[in-house]
Write a structure and sequence with these properties.
This protein is an all-alpha fold and 293 residues long. The chain is built from 11 helices and no strands. It has a domain of 203 residues. 33% of the residues are buried. The N terminus is likely disordered.
Length: 293
């Protein structure tokens, strides 16, 4: 009898599928991508996100002017984004004004320029602190709420259900939030400007013996309408950034509840960075537009 065909040699007589194979753990791992490839992939992903957000902006604006108009949804978003943000605006604005007053007053006191405190604070609040810090602080709250709400709808397939019923998610979900953010943020920033200035005026009167009337008059003498507009005209752009980033990361959420948390975190980070970058370019634009401001 042939040894190769004997039953005592199962490796030879068994089918090829039963023969021992190389374990997956012993296979060579694929090489890691190089640093250039990783950075290139990140840049391409960034531009992909920018393209999707731009498409969301143009699509929601076109859809928003088609009937029926989403008045109830817009009013609901105005209430949830604006009225609900009053508390955090009051606290942050008053204490930021007090902190800035203390810092500027101590610094100017060393050089005998304590009477210029009102002018410096008024200019800094009107041009930068009120619009930018308000957008960063309130934007984190608004944007994270949008991302969490739309992310929950995405992972439970409610957005797909809206599409299946023949409705446009950009019109139903994005447009009301976008319009409400653009309307609310200038109002909130102006409210923050008044509160921050009031907090600074109060603390300088109590601690540095600068009369409130003198503080108010010197501040009004230093600030003109162009300074106010240079700050307030930034806020609609900041509002659009907040709404678009929050809706984008919310509607593209995947991975269940963990994905909702990741989208919320990414939204807050991206909104803060995008507002600061946009603030630089908008400030340069305001200086070009009003060179004598």
């Amino acid at each position: 009898m042939d040894i190769a065909s004997s039953p005592s040699n199962p490796q030879a007589s068994g089918p090829p599928s039963n023969r021992p194979s190389l374990r997956p753990s012993l296979l060579p791992l694929p090489p890691e991508p190089s640093l250039i490839k990783r950075q290139t992939a990140r840049v391409l992903t960034f531009f992909e996100h920018v393209g999707v957000i731009w498409h969301m902006l143009t699509g929601s604006v076109r859809a928003g002017f088609r009937r029926p108009f989403e008045w109830r949804a817009i009013l609901k978003q105005l209430d949830s984004l604006g009225v609900a943000s009053v508390g955090i605006v009051v606290v942050t604005s008053v204490f930021i004004g007090m902190v800035m007053a203390v810092q500027f007053a101590f610094g100017l006191q060393k050089f005998g320029g304590l009477e210029y405190t009102g002018r410096v604070i008024a200019l800094s609040f009107a041009r930068e602190l009120a619009p930018t810090l308000t957008a960063v602080i309130v934007g984190g709250r608004i944007g994270s709420g949008m991302a969490a709400e739309l992310g929950a709808m995405a992972v439970t397939e409610q957005i797909d259900a809206i599409r299946a019923l023949g409705a446009d998610p950009l019109k139903k979900l994005v447009w009301p939030r976008l319009l409400a953010s653009v309307i609310v943020l200038p109002v909130v920033a102006a409210f923050s400007l008044v509160l921050g200035f009031a907090g600074a005026m109060m603390i300088t009167d109590l601690q540095f013996d600068i009369p409130s009337a003198f503080f108010f008059r010197s501040a009004l003498a230093a600030v003109n309408m162009t300074d106010f507009l240079a700050g307030m005209l930034k806020t609609p752009v900041f509002g659009a950034i907040i709404a678009l980033v929050g809706c984008h990361f919310g509607m593209t959420t995947k991975g269940g509840t963990a994905g909702v948390g990741n989208s919320t975190t990414r939204t807050v980070v991206v909104i803060s960075i995008a507002i600061l970058i946009a603030d630089f370019f908008l400030t340069k634009f305001a200086i070009i537009l009003w060179p004598q401001a």
